[in-house]
Amino acid sequence: MLHSTKGIVFHSLKYSETSIIVKIYTDLFGIQSYLIKGIRNAKSKVKPGLFQSMTLLDLVVYHKEKQSLQSIKEVQLSCPFKTIPFDIRKSSVVMFINELVYKSIREEEANPELFGFLWQSCRDLDETEESVSGFHLRFSLQLMQYLGIFPQNNRADSFPIFNLREGCFQARVPNHPHYLDPEQSRVFSEILDMNIEYRILNIEYRRKILETILLYYQLHLPGFKGVQSHHILHDVLA
Description:
Elements: E1 2-14, E2 20-26, E3 30-36, E4 56-62, E5 71-77, H1 88-104, H2 112-127, H3 135-147, E6 161-163, E7 168-170, E8 179-180, H4 182-192, H5 203-220, H6 229-237
Antiparallel strand pairs: 1-2, 1-4, 2-3, 4-5, 6-7, 6-8
């Protein structure tokens, strides 16, 4: 059966001399893998560049339940990026976001709220004229809410230590190394409230915050593997 759906490209890989398999997060079916035949042929009307990471697409697809590879009947750009391809800072943020969502999201079912968040985040990044130095931090925290792993922000004078394993603030240092000291915990609490202006944080502090967030993902998402693109992101945003 044919369905019209929007999609966000997560990943593509070579399947044969002329074909590719593309993993796309769709608004109707969650993550799906599509076999696109002949796209690497010079005569193909659809070009591989259409499936760059985080590209926003309008699709007409064939969908069969419990089938590992689906197929696409029609595809076109939905919202062409105007600035991301030409801004190394924005393109580096997109690279990081793509790796984070690719390693975090496993849903093979519709999740309109999560899909809408990802779609709008890409639009916002492309359209913003402000600094993007904290965009990846804000995105990483907001994504936690949609994944159901957002920390409990219960910090108080009597609970000054953030325990990454438990996802909450507590009175004493835990008997494991995954915690933040009182000052780091204070700043992290402000970040969880989205009350901080990231541009006032120095580069090293932003780096530490991101490392903390990624460790939190590893502790709370089964199967989550380490992200590598943040190293490049740090250099570019510096």
